[in-house]
Amino acid sequence: MGKRKLFCEYGPVCFEISIFKESKKKDFKDFLQGRKFCKHFDKNNFEYIWKSDTKLMLRELHGVDMQLQRNKVVNLGIAAEKLDGAVVMPGEEFSFWNMVGRATKEKGYLEGLMISNGKMIKGYGGGICQMANMIHWLVLHTPLEVTELHHHSDALFPDSKRRVPFGTGTSVCYKALDYRFKNTTDHPIQFRVWLDDKMLNGEIRSMVPLENKYRITEEDHHFAKDEEGVFHRNSKVYRTITNKATKEVIKKELILNNHSKVMYDYSLIPEDEIRETV
């Protein structure tokens, strides 16, 4: 007997009904919990940069049509217009989907690469998860509190010019899988984001300097087979918080324990990073 189909799988109308239902369910839950989301914008730069970063937008991913990557750049540009200048006041939360809205063809989004149930598919708005990844990376270097995060469960691609620890990205899917953080400080913070010819650029700014330094490191990175011969990518990601004035280490915390199934060709795994099955 085959697997029973979900309601959303019975055609486009059922899919739209499911999206609408899940969206309203989440909005109603937020209302009951009294959550306050940011709505302010200011494109005059706050004085102090807490964290900045750049991400390469066009990457040659194994087995992926580069046109989908070029479409992603268009999608990132549309999302950037919705996010640039967002100000999160003390006690407020930032919600990726509340700010960006649903990515549709009617809004100018193109078909890009999306991940669904561990598989690569095409879909309108595909690729804007890179924006959510950027925001999360910035937030990790601040005292802001992540309130919703969904890690990628599988290793979908081999490394290609990766500069950050594996697994520090986030999955987003309207509106069920959101990325959110809360401003738990006493000061407003500002998010700036823009695109240039090759890079996605982002900053978190404030009106006061950051007292501590935040460093993200990856340790014990390796690949290993399980008992069924399936490779997994493993590592531990830590965040170290250091006082800028005294250089004293305040805290070192484990923020991610990676154990991700490798979904790409095993021949692309570097031999010097493979360990015997334990």
Task: Describe the protein.
The chain has one domain. The strands form 4 sheets. Strands 1-3-10-11-2 form a 5-stranded antiparallel β-sheet. The two termini are 37 Å apart. The protein has helices at residues 12-33, 66-83, 96-100, 129-140, and strands at residues 40-41, 48-56, 86-88, 93-95, 111-116, 119-124, 145-148, 154-155, 180-182, 189-195, 199-206, 212-225, 231-243, 249-262, 274-275. The chain is of the alpha+beta class and 278 residues long. The chain is globular, with a radius of gyration of 20 Å.
Secondary-structure blueprint:
Layout: H1 12-33, E1 40-41, E2 48-56, H2 66-83, E3 86-88, E4 93-95, H3 96-100, E5 111-116, E6 119-124, H4 129-140, E7 145-148, E8 154-155, E9 180-182, E10 189-195, E11 199-206, E12 212-225, E13 231-243, E14 249-262, E15 274-275
Parallel strand pairs: 8-14, 12-15
Antiparallel strand pairs: 1-3, 2-11, 3-10, 4-9, 5-6, 7-9, 10-11, 12-13, 13-14
Q: Report how far the terminal alpha carbons are from each other.
A: 37 Å
Helix tally? Answer: 4
Number of strands: 15
Shape: globular
What is the overall pLDDT average?
86
Percent of residues in helices = 10-25%
